[in-house]
Amino acid sequence: MKKPASQIKVLSVDIGGSHVKATVLNSNGQLLQPYQKVTTPSPANPENIIKDIELLGKGFPEYDYVSVGFPGYVKNGVVKTAPNLDNKAWRDFDLSKNLSAALGKPAKVVNDADMQGLGVVDGRGLELVITLGTGFGSALLLDGNLLPHLEMAHHPFTKKHTYDEYIGEKALDKIGDKKWNRRLKNVLSVLKTVFNYDTLYIGGGNARKINFKLDKGIRIVTNEDGIKGGARLWITDKAHEPVKLPAVKKSKSPKLL
Fold this sequence. Notes:
CATH architecture of the largest domain: 2-Layer Sandwich
CATH class of the largest domain: Alpha Beta
Number of strands: 13
């Protein structure tokens, strides 16, 4: 018998270039299991990543579904790119299907920034989510609706650098915190001009390196906040359908003369 949406439990997984993280959530995105992580394996191919997810899930509370945030372009559960993992091994790999077979539970896989976006947004207006980790992740939502994934990481930001190359972890290690923060200021200025977002959320491990005051409308969010998006993937039938968010009280429209 199918459980009501309010009773489902979800194994939520975040695959990153440095760590694979997991927890079990209830339908409201509340953690039922302490956040656990393991170092991303080398080589970071499908077989090794799936083994790590199986290992993390052992001893967790019973769950009904699996949600995965993946660091690359994902279409219908199939990985197209994995620039910070074993890219060649992941190309056209059906992670959703293979993970379902390994864990014995239905699984959905989306881009990691998309899942983080579902977990952190308020659902009001145009909301942009970026992640500062091994690479540069991005997601865009309108009134709580997840829009088609933006692979901004590989879009040119300067004549010589993509967003990934300009502001990713390799750049941070090479140029240091001070210069990296100057670059981040440039990126934030461009994003505001291009998107005119209502709210910008900044997540990822390197968000803690930010040393300047952020403008109004910009919020720092944690990986724990983002992994909660795994529950919202199963509250609706499809990842790109509207998520259920608190209703906003609307004022009455003035009568036209």
